[in-house]
Give the backbone structure.
Amino acid sequence: MRGLYLITNDHPIEILLEKLQAALSTGHIAILQYRRKKVARADQPAEIKRIQQLCQQYQVPFVINDDLELAMQFGLGVHLGQSDGEIRDAKARLPQGAIIGRTCANSIELAEQAVQDGASYVAFGAIYATASKPEAGNIGLETLKTARPQLNLPICAIGGLTVENSATVVQSGADLCAVISDILALNTQDIPARVQAWAALFAENQSVI
């Protein structure tokens, strides 16, 4: 599990689907996460179904942010914040092999607990300041550098990441770089080249930790 981890934004669904298709069709999206904070929960299943079909078409793993019930409904993976349920519970209720991610902020201890509980990956951030989650602050690269030798599962970095500032993030130990605006803020026609630039970044940079 390595590469670009794309998270949805709150674009109108038809625009979002166009942009997701442009990104997924490159073959260089490692995971897609459904995160739609401004969409009524009653409207989310219909959206998830359409995005799930896209992910199946391009064979991209698809996870739901912070909602185990929705993940169960569609047989998908889930990304859990620290207050969004237990990994062991998710493992018991989701299909075998479903991806389960865990937000760990800047805590190695939380990440080690997530490993013990059976997480598929752990996420650290915000690495840099980010407009989509300003309350997260920013932790820089030291947590990644400390975590890499200690953890035996994929590490996801999130928060303010762009192609231009993420080579050192990958070198510091990130297997996955999670982004929203660096891809979805672009015009649809510009997305494939940006995704290709991310793919090149991962090809050219390895963890040096």
Summary: The chain has nine helices and eight strands. The chain has a mean pLDDT of 95.
